[in-house]
Amino acid sequence: MSAFLAALGISTVAIFIAEMGDKTQLVAMSLASRYRVLTVILGITAATAVVHLGSVFIAEVLGAALPTDWLTLAAGLAFLFFGLWTLRGDEMTEKDEERAASRRIRSGFMTVALVFFVAELGDKTMLATITVGTQHHWLPVWIGSTIGMVAADGIAIAIGAVLGKKLPERAIRIGASVLFFLAGAAMLAQGAWALLA
């Protein structure tokens, strides 16, 4: 039970951090101005659950195929990469994704779910879920990554409703990047120590 709770906590925190300053937070704020908050939250949850279920499946396959020490080193490198990715920001804007989905679908829930599904494919939160999933059992990682994503986007929706669209995006990105760099450095040290011991 303690391993389950540890994996749940690690995945929740890792994905929460990964989502800070991500384009899907901006999508959430934008969609919340057009659809009911509950519709946006349900759409985010459905899309995230599906994408992250696929992510933990990929992690299970990778975890069975690769030695643990090397996975820890790879996870550390991946987290350093996520830190750089977070600092750089995303190319596609939330408006592009929202327009593409709303042209085809009239249901608010389906529009939100499709936007988030497309935005998450290959996104750093999906890759972070795979990374954490290679280190822990899939079920708590799946639950935790979904909770972390929805919590981060829920905060974005709430802040967006109060402050409008003027948020310190750069400060959020820098803070999330620093956390990724620290986690990556710790994982690299742990993996190197295990290989050299």
Describe this structure in words.
The chain has 197 residues and is mainly alpha-helical. The protein is 84% helix and 0% strand. The chain has nine helices and no strands. The longest helix is centred in the first third of the chain and has 29 residues, at 37-65. The two termini are 29 Å apart.
How do the strands and helices of this protein lay out in sequence?
Blueprint: H1 2-19, H2 23-32, H3 37-65, H4 68-88, H5 94-104, H6 108-120, H7 124-133, H8 138-163, H9 169-196
Helix count equals 9
Helix content: over 70%
- Determine the mean pLDDT: 77
Major β-sheet annotation: none
Report the end-to-end length measured between terminal Cα atoms: 29 Å
Structural features:
197 residues, mainly alpha
Question: What's a quick, concise take on this entry?
Answer:
With 197 residues, the chain is mostly helical. It has nine helices and no strands.
